[in-house]
Amino acid sequence: MPQDTLTAVQAALGSEHAAVWVYGLVSAFLPANFDKAINEGAQAHRSRRDTTERLLGASGATPNPAEPAYLPPKPVTNQASALGLMVDAEQDCTVAWRAVLEASDDTDIRTNAVAALTESAVRATRWRKTAGITPLTPSMPGKPHTT
Distance (Å, rounded) from C-alpha 34 to C-alpha 43? Predict the structure, then answer.
């Protein structure tokens, strides 16, 4: 695997590790009626993480491990901030997987990246809708925010 592809895939793996952690954190701030969606999102990120680790291992690379914890960009103190953090985590995944698409010509890697970007973009839209955040989706999912 070329170095630029490896770097992008490792970064995407890092975003998946962080998303798994975020889903665990937000469950403490959301009522039980969110449990199904939280569990589905967490499972999707665990599955994508595992697939990405296998892909890296098959290429001879050692997958980077998860951090013991992650620092949210803003404090999580209530339902609104928990929903916002899930949107951020999903958006981070779309950005990371788009970077993989830009860094690789390998069919297996690109197939995984397209699926991951699409799934995270859909979950981000659902969480934005739940949180009342507009627009529901960016015009170019996976495009990094510029300020």
Answer: 14
Tell me what pLDDT residue 145 has. 61
Please identify which residue in the block is written with the tokens 């010509």.
105
**pLDDT tens, residue by residue, 4-24:** 999 999 999 999 999 999 999
- 3-class secondary structure, 141: coil
The 10 Å Cβ neighbour count of residue 143 is 12
| pTM exceeds 0.90, yes or no | yes
- HSE on the CB side for 31, CA within 13 Å? 2
| Distance separating the N- and C-terminal Cα atoms of the chain | 33
CATH topology assigned to domain 3-131: Ferritin (1.20.1260)
Residue boundaries of the structural domains of the chain: 3-131
Distances (CA, A) of 31 to 35, 36, 78, 79, 82: 8, 11, 10, 8, 11
